[in-house]
Amino acid sequence: MSNRNAATTLAMFPGQGSQYVGMGRHLLSEFPTSRLAFEEAEDAAGINIRKLCLDGPEEDLKLTANTQPCILTVSIAIWRVLESEAGLTADTFAGHSLGEYSALVASGKLTLGRAAFLVRRRGEAMQAAVPRNTGAMAAVMGVAPELLLAKAVKASRPGSIVEVVNFNSPQQLVIAGHKDAVETFVKSLEADKARCVMLPVSAPFHSSLMTKAKDAMAPLLRETLVRISSGKIIANRTGKIESPYQIEHLIEQIDHSVMWSQTLETAVAAGCTDFIEVGPGKVLVGLAKRQVPKDARLTHSDDTRAAITALK
Prior knowledge:
Layout: E1 9-13, H1 25-30, H2 35-45, H3 49-55, H4 58-61, H5 64-86, E2 92-95, H6 99-106, H7 112-129, E3 135-141, H8 145-155, E4 162-169, E5 172-178, H9 179-191, E6 195-198, H10 211-222, E7 232-233, H11 248-253, H12 260-269, E8 274-277, H13 283-289, E9 297-300, H14 304-311
């Protein structure tokens, strides 16, 4: 059984960008029961998640409507394996963007089937909200959040929007908006010696340009039952523990910023000392290293067998 205290463990679930062709292969080969998660999600989403995860091709996997159910499924399959093989439990859950759906499933508030159906529709709505090649996102490093917010407000015009959409850490923020506006803003930041990286996405996620996607998803989300469970959710929209959790947090999340830095602050203040990333990749552990106390325990599950050993 896990030697971690559920009351001090934050289970973190990654979002879009953590996917890669081949994710989940070791799960399906080493832990045959994990196929049940894939089957449940495939039935609900209506796509061949196993083929996309294992074989791609990458161009198909990275389509937003495919990426989201694939990451959700792999994350929950890993969570279930860690529960059964290592006795992992947690009282507090959080997910980055799409990962909030995984957090809700792991905490018992959503079924995997309903979540897979929703994120498939969410991906389709996000793809449809903004025409291809008219939106963009970029990571910005080394600019204080308050300063970047002020600069973005000054740079935005009607029809030429640029907004701060992800507060990933005090040192890393993400901007999104109209492609031309983002590219022009990045050039001005780089002229002031900031480090910027354009992100390989086709839509300005979490910006006000996603309002059409929010409007499309709102009816589906409002008819979704959020179950009562003991797990506490730190919501993207607020960066705070929301109890009881309201479905409006998932609705508002679509066109509002992800408050991830504030999420980690809340977890630390709540007494979390163990931080485990459940899902493909290591992005969230990398962000946590910059913000949580040095004696905190950080684990990622991309190598699930190694994670089981670390948790026992």
